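REQUEST
  id: r-88c1
  op: predict_structure
  target: Phospholipid transfer protein-like
  payload:
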Amino acid sequence: MFEVQNSSITLNFQRRILYWLFYDEGAINASAEGVNIFTVLHLIKDKDGRLKISNVTCDAFITKMRARFSGTLGRVYDFIGTFLTTGMRFVLNKQICPALNHAALVLINQLLETIPVRTEVDSYVGIDYSLLNDPVVTETSLDMDFRGMFYDLKNENETLVNYAVNPVVREYDRMIYLSLSEYFFDSGLFSYFKGGLQKQLLLDSFQMPKDLEMLLRTTYLGTIMMLNPALMEHPLSLELEVTSPPRSTIKTSGASVAVNCNVKVLVLPPGKPAVQLSSMTMEGKFNAKVSMKGKRLAIHLDLRRFKIFSNQSALESLALIPLQGPLKTMLQISVVPLINNYIKRGVQIPLPDGIDFIEEVVEYHNGYIIVGANLHFRTGLREIIERKKAMLVNSLTKPPTC
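RESPONSE
  id: r-88c1
  status: 200
  body:
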């Protein structure tokens, strides 16, 4: 609902009249007082899950209007000014609501169409921001329930079931509050796991430090000698594979991501298949710092806890204790920066073109995150609509390519 009471409007006109030998030119400076506008926008979600204005209820009237005339026949117009201003007030009273209806049903709806609802994030996953229900309007807020779910581009129907708690927003200091539950992050981790991104990042970009290779060679010296002493001359490698979708946890103290990996110690003889020396399980826990920049949500990870143990025997798990520190250092130096470099681009939050978040603040709650921000309009509504029309015309007039 939008309501304007006892406002004023100033209008400036240039008149030019040429009728046979009669010529008149001058200016009209008009002002309207006691302008009252009462408008109600009826909001729904369309078939694509996008916010849309379905109807407008409008009531508007101008209480009083004045006008001053200048130019050739300015005094004549001033003499009959009461009659002219009455006519002008009548015309304006009839034009305010149609203008508001066109602005809402056409222009603003065109602006809302620029909001991404279901879009690709990268070559692995997409994100669904469609509305689940019609917006709920209260006395203090406009509440919208978005799906907020990632999906694997290769299998869009395989998604994670949502068991997360419903966020609760009690703050009203900023223009907009975005609530993100654990499901938002878990669906992303699940989709990337199904798409194979974690495994690809770890395997293709892995480089082992020399001191760690020497420690591994010493630890598995007996195993190498039992298999084939000639393997001592060949390089070692580690293969890390994420065995299950990582899970996020959000508490008032912050957010974290738990990852389970299978780590294989391999010997790489040239021109021959790799020889496995051992297999162990790695459990890692990362601190996750969530940030908002413009209209993109990004996460920065930092390895907090790390543990490895053998899949074969408890005795071997004891022998792996000296590897804990070097392996953790290797992950922090070699692997974590690769992941952060990939995810630093973030994911776009659904906002119309020309609008960004500013003065962002992130608050952590049990089970969800709340991002509060104000809105910054980089581009006016008219410019956005004209740009969209130009793009539509260009797409229609572009010749087809063979």
